[in-house]
Design brief:
Blueprint (H helix, E strand, L loop, with lengths): L7 H23 L3 E9 L2 E9 L2 E9 L3 H6 L3 H16 L8 E9 L6 E3 L8
Parallel strand pairs: 3-4
Antiparallel strand pairs: 1-2, 2-3, 4-5
Protein name: UPF0102 protein ABB55_13445
InterPro entries: Restrct_endonuc-II-like, tRNA_endonuc-like_dom_sf, UPF0102_YraN-like
Pfam family, one: UPF0102
């Protein structure tokens, strides 16, 4: 029995996404954030990075695109709602952090440039 081969373009996109998340995590560390979780998955959503600085827990969406504008435009309301749903589950599993402030950030990653961090980039709507 032979294994099906993965589509090379999908493999490349997956690797680019992992690289972008790693670059975003390093940028946040350099800015004084502690990375608490990566690639958290819960029913209905996923969070790329969860970080903490002081008494603020930050849920970070990483968007890797060819241009900064494309990365900034890639976050839509549906994605924001999915991140918010996963964030509720993440925080519910950590009672010690439930009283901390929460924020939703975006890190845009484009080729040959430093990642662009946008604190408080979005507020999910119910």
């Amino acid at each position: 029995m032979t294994r099906p081969t993965a589509d090379p373009s999908r493999v490349s996109a997956y690797r680019w996404g992992l690289s972008a998340e790693t670059r975003a995590a390093w940028l946040l560390r350099l800015k004084g954030y502690a990375i608490l979780d990566r690639r958290f998955r819960a029913a209905g959503g996923e969070i790329d990075l969860v970080a903490r600085r002081g008494r603020t827990v930050v849920f970070v969406e990483v968007k890797a695109r060819a241009t900064l504008d494309a990365a900034l435009e890639a976050l839509d309301d549906r994605t924001a709602r999915r991140i918010a749903a996963a964030a509720e589950i993440w925080i519910a599993r950590r009672p010690a952090l439930q009283d901390f402030d929460q924020r939703f950030d975006l890190v845009a990653v484009v080729p040959r440039r430093w990642p662009h961090h946008m604190p408080d980039a979005f507020r999910p709507r119910a």
